[in-house]
Specification:
This protein has 129 residues and is an alpha+beta fold. It has 2 helices and 5 strands; from the N terminus they run E-E-E-E-E-H-H. The strands form 2 sheets. A 3-stranded antiparallel sheet has the order 4-1-5, with no helix packed on it. Strands 2-3 form a two-stranded antiparallel ribbon. A hairpin with a 2-residue loop joins strand 2 and strand 3. The longest helix is centred in the last third of the chain and has 16 residues, at 90-105.
Length: 129
């Protein structure tokens, strides 16, 4: 819907509209001489073209991620099988989550094979071999 400002006292949609009042309306008000267009929310403004990308519009920036709430952290900790996650304070919970994530990310001695390969990824000790 677009916003329009009344230029004169007039009638619109079976209502009396005073001069200067802002109303929302459709395309029928664009041609009406008693109203002026203020803003059109249905049309999106294009990003300004820059010279470094060939004149194409750049994509909009990603919205900032909202911080996780305590309940979200407890649920995530429970998926990591952290015992007593719901009884921990937030700093302790964050520390336990970081520790659990670090343990799952690093390969253990059982994952490393005798020939230097880790989980099937080629991590040979001798690059010539």
């Amino acid at each position: 819907m677009a916003q329009f400002r009344a230029k004169n006292d007039t009638f619109y949609n079976f209502q009396y509209v005073r001069k200067g009042k802002v109303i929302y309306g459709g395309d029928d008000l664009k041609a009406n001489e008693n109203f002026e267009l203020i803003g059109d929310e249905s049309k999106k403004a294009a990003a300004p073209a820059t010279g470094d990308n060939g004149g194409e519009n750049t994509p909009p920036a990603a919205p900032a991620a909202k911080p996780a709430t305590y309940n979200d952290l407890v649920k995530y900790a429970q998926t990591l099988n952290i015992a007593g996650a719901n009884r921990m304070k937030k700093p302790e919970l964050l520390e336990a989550i970081a520790k659990a994530e670090a343990e799952t990310a690093a390969p253990t001695a059982d994952d490393v094979k005798g020939d230097g390969e880790v989980n099937g990824d080629s991590v040979d000790k001798d690059p010539a071999a």
